[in-house]
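Pipeline run #58 for the internal structure catalog. This entry was flagged by the ingest filter as a single-chain record with no existing model, so it goes straight to prediction. Upstream metadata was stripped on purpose; only the residue string is passed forward. Reviewer on rotation: M.T. Logging verbosity set to normal.
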Amino acid sequence: MDGNHDLDNVSSSPVRLLLASTSPRRAELLRAAGFEFDAVRSDVDESPLPGEQPRDYVLRLALGKARAASPAPGQIVIGADTTVVVDGAMLGKPGSAEEAAAMVARLAGRTHEVWTGVALRLDGREVCDVGISRVEFAPMTAEEIAWYVASGEPEGKAGAYAVQGLASRFVTRIDGSYSNVVGLPVALVYQLLGRLRDRRSG
């Protein structure tokens, strides 16, 4: 990849990006939007702090992932973290099939929020923000919940579902960014690249 990058014209010039995640969903979203990037695993402790609110939680993890990565010179790091919020409670990744079933049952027939924190880092400069989408689930029978959990799809997914997969048959409405629900609000990434450009030239 060309080492010369131009933050003043990110729409037409390749920008060197390092995705601090090995999530195939986030990688596919960036790829589909035409971004060139490398990907690296960036592990952080995803346990919420006592009393931590969703915005603070996803921003802390996104920044932690961006800071934990080791980019090449001139490479912009993207860190992101997603959580599902219902009744003010954050639903992370289920630890068991029973926990996944309980999460899906809690979402069925209701509207919840998906929060994704995004952090971009370049040579010590950082910009970050949060994308929020509202997702409505159709009512689900116990048999439908059991079928979905048995598919294995909830494993490793915040809120125990994947909107781009089998769960799509139960999603009746999305207000906000669809890519945010998948795991990375691509339009927000693009906006943050512009903010990073402005900060660089300021």
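catalog note: The beta strands are 17-19, 37-39, 76-86, 89-91, 111-122, 125-137, 171-175.
catalog note: Helices lie at 24-32, 54-68, 97-107, 142-150, 178-182, 186-201.
status: ready for reviewer M.T.
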